[in-house]
Design brief:
Strand order of the largest sheet: 1-2
Shape: globular
Number of helices: 23
Strand content: under 5%
Structural class: mainly alpha
Order of helices and strands: HHEEHHHHHHHHHHHHHHHHHHHHH
Distance between the termini: 107 Å
C-alpha cells in the first residue's frame, strides 16, 4: 500500500515539473484521488491502480478543450494561419458575420459555379491570340459574388420555415433569428444596388440582357415547391453569364456560339446540382419540397450520363462556331473523362461523397476556362503558319 502511494506521488510530482500547460490543475485532482485510497479501494469505488489514474487524468484533461488550445497557442507563441473563406467570415466583427453567412461568403463554391460560365464566354469572345480581358473578368467576378449573395438572401427569405425543419439549414441567419426578414430585405436591396452598379459598367445591350435575368433570380427558390426540376431553372439562372460575357466583350451575342455554350452550362448545372440534391433528399421528403434527386432516384446515373453527352455536344458546337483549335478539344476530352469519373464513382447514398463530387466541379470549370484560353492563343500560331506558307508561294 505504502509503495503504491509513494509511486503515485512520485509520478504526479514528476508530471508537475514537466507540465506547465493548462491541464496542470487536473494533476491536483489526481493527487487527491490517490490520497483517498483506503484498503486498496478508493472511497468513490475506483481502484488505485495506474489505469485508474490514467482514466482520471484524461477525463480531467478533456474539460474545456478550446480554452486549453487557446492557452497552449499563447504559451508557445505560435498561431496557425488560414486564409479560407470561413476563416475570413469568422474573423469579421460579430454584428457583420450573420450577413456574410447569409450571402454564403463562407461557402464560395456557389460563387465559383456562377462565375465560371462568365469566364468561358469572355474567353471565347477574346480576339485570336489574346488573353481574356482582365478588367472584364474582375468585373464579372464582383458581379457573381454580389448576385450569388442576393440569390442566397432571396432563397433564405422564401425558405425560412423550411430551413427551420432541416438540421443542415436550421442555423442559417434568417431561420435562426439572427437576422429579421426586414433586415434581410434591406441587405438584399444593398446587394442588388451594388450589382446594378457593376451592370451599368457594361454596354447598353448587356445592361438589358443582364436585367432580364432578375426574374429568374427571384423566382428560382419557388420552383422546388412546384416542380421536380428546380435544378433546370437554377441552370437557366446560373448560366446567364454565358450570354452576358460575350455581349460585354463584343457588344451583342453571337447566338451560334452563345446558345450552345448556354445550353452546355444548363446541362452542367443539372449534373452538379442533382448530385448536391442527393445530400438533402431525406429532408426534402419530410418538408415536402421537390428536386431532380427525388425525380431520378435510382436512375440518377443514367440521367447524369445523358446530361454529360448533351453538355459535351454543346461545347463542341460552341467551339466549332467560335473557330476554336486543338488545345480546346484536348481539354474537352479531359472534361468528359472528369465527368465520367464523377458519375461512375458517385455514391448517392453518402452525403460526404455527394459533396466531394459537387465541389470538384469548380476544378472542372477552371479546366475548361484554361482550355478556351489555350485554344484562343493557338489561333495566333495557326494564322502565323498560314501567313508563312503564303509568303513562300
Amino acid at each position: 500500500m505504502l509503495p503504491a502511494k509513494l509511486t503515485s506521488r512520485f509520478t504526479l510530482n514528476a508530471l508537475r515539473r514537466i507540465h506547465h500547460g493548462p491541464c496542470y490543475p487536473c494533476l491536483y485532482s489526481l493527487s487527491n484521488c490517490s490520497l483517498h485510497v483506503e484498503g486498496g479501494r478508493a472511497r468513490d469505488g475506483l481502484h488505485s491502480d495506474p489505469s485508474v489514474l490514467r482514466r482520471v487524468f484524461y477525463s480531467q484533461s478533456a474539460i474545456r478543450p478550446s480554452l486549453r488550445l487557446r492557452e497552449a497557442v499563447q504559451h508557445y507563441g505560435r498561431r496557425s494561419f488560414s486564409l479560407s473563406a470561413a476563416t475570413i467570415v469568422n474573423s469579421a466583427p460579430a454584428p457583420v458575420q450573420p450577413y456574410l453567412r447569409l450571402m454564403r461568403l463562407d461557402k464560395p463554391i456557389g460563387t465559383w459555379l456562377l462565375y465560371l460560365p462568365c469566364t468561358w464566354s469572355i474567353a471565347l469572345a477574346s480576339d485570336p491570340g489574346c488573353l481574356p480581358h482582365l478588367g472584364m473578368l474582375t468585373l464579372f467576378g464582383t458581379g457573381a459574388l454580389l448576385m450569388r449573395g442576393a440569390g442566397c438572401t432571396i432563397n433564405d427569405m422564401w425558405d425560412k420555415d423550411f430551413d427551420k425543419k432541416v438540421s443542415r439549414t436550421a442555423t442559417r441567419p434568417i431561420a435562426s433569428g439572427e437576422i429579421s426578414q426586414m433586415q434581410a430585405l434591406v441587405f438584399l436591396g444593398g446587394q442588388l444596388s451594388l450589382a446594378l452598379g457593376v451592370l451599368l459598367c457594361l454596354n447598353y445591350y448587356s445592361i438589358a440582357l443582364g436585367a432580364a435575368s432578375l426574374s429568374l433570380v427571384i423566382t428560382y427558390p419557388l420552383m422546388k415547391r412546384i416542380t421536380y426540376w428546380p435544378q433546370f431553372v437554377l441552370g437557366l439562372t446560373f448560366n446567364w453569364g454565358a450570354l452576358l460575357g460575350w455581349s460585354a466583350v463584343k457588344g451583342s451575342c453571337d447566338w451560334s456560339v452563345c446558345l450552345p455554350l448556354y445550353f452546355s452550362g444548363v446541362m452542367w448545372t443539372l449534373i452538379y446540382d442533382t448530385i448536391y440534391a442527393h445530400q438533402d433528399k431525406e429532408d426534402d421528403i419530410k418538408v415536402g419540397v421537390k428536386s431532380t434527386a427525388l425525380r431520378f432516384q435510382e436512375q440518377t446515373k443514367p440521367w447524369l450520363s445523358g446530361f454529360t453527352v448533351a453538355m459535351m455536344t454543346g461545347l463542341v458546337a460552341a467551339g466549332v462556331n467560335a473557330e476554336q483549335t486543338l488545345p480546346y478539344y484536348a481539354v474537352l476530352s479531359t472534361v468528359a473523362i472528369h465527368l465520367t469519373h464523377q458519375i461512375y464513382t458517385l455514391d448517392t447514398n453518402k452525403p460526404e461523397d455527394c459533396w466531394k463530387k459537387f465541389v470538384s466541379n469548380r476544378n472542372l470549370g477552371l479546366l475548361l476556362f484554361l482550355g478556351i484560353v489555350a485554344g484562343n492563343l493557338w489561333k495566333e500560331r495557326e494564322e502565323t503558319l498560314l501567313q508563312n506558307e503564303e509568303a513562300f508561294r
